[in-house]
Design goal:
The protein is built from one helix and ten strands. Helix content is 7%, strand content 58%. The chain has one domain: Porin (Beta Barrel), CATH 2.40.160.20. With 210 residues, the chain is mainly beta. It has a ten-stranded antiparallel barrel with strand order 1-2-3-4-5-6-7-8-9-10.
């Protein structure tokens, strides 16, 4: 099972280009054989009428998982979808532990493929999509329960020019033994000279965390 999980991470990281609205991870990497699965929701419709990417309805629901690959390295995959319009994306990431003392610091690199619905014909159409690829390097600092991060999104699509934006992340997790709720705030800066803030709510299940 773990072999398939790691293979999924590897394939997703290489083939995907995520404009995911959340990170849902701390700077502490998972141990080898430690696995978590989670679900999250971002109840937001803040982005509308984005010039390059059309109109977006961002109520994002996600399923995600992570596992420790080797010492100081873990990886994850996330499947995100926006309900009602049959769109969403897949992302994969690899995270490297840089320090443990006095705080955890890690570098994460995520890539993804995402589809969003546009209104280029004056109304929403089930067949009117834009396909977006992105790469998202991210630096995380803190511990496994409280953390902060800063990153850059590099966006590209088949129909539009490439753009770049920046994001700041802060998150908190309740230290449950197996089930851990998580809240994360993600602020996207200078996305077409506009700033957006999203709040993510998630719950995670950990096992084999010896």
């Amino acid at each position: 099972m773990k072999t398939l999980f790691v293979l999924n991470i590897f394939i997703s990281s290489i083939l995907c280009g995520c404009f995911s609205l959340s990170s849902m991870q701390s700077p502490k990497v998972l141990k080898v054989n430690e696995v978590l699965f989670g679900i999250s929701v971002v109840p937001s419709n803040r982005i509308k009428e984005i010039k390059k990417f059309g109109s977006i309805l961002n109520n994002e629901h996600s399923l995600y998982g992570r596992t420790g690959i080797m010492k100081n390295i873990d990886g994850g995959v996330k499947f995100s979808g926006v309900p009602y319009f049959w769109k969403g994306g897949i992302s994969g990431d690899i995270k490297f532990q840089l320090t443990e003392n006095p705080v955890f610091m890690s570098f994460d690199i995520e890539s993804s493929y995402y589809t969003i619905q546009t209104n280029t014909h004056g109304e929403f159409s089930a067949f009117d999509f834009i396909h977006i690829y992105s790469i998202h390097p991210l630096l995380l600092v803190g511990n496994e329960y409280v953390y902060f991060g800063a990153g850059i999104y590099f966006f590209s699509s088949f129909h539009n020019e490439n753009i770049r934006s920046y994001n700041l992340i802060s998150g908190i997790t309740y230290p449950g033994k197996k089930l851990q709720p998580r809240i994360e705030v993600n602020t996207n800066l200078k996305f077409e000279n506009r700033n957006f803030t999203f709040i993510s709510f998630g719950i995670e299940y950990h096992y084999n965390d010896k």
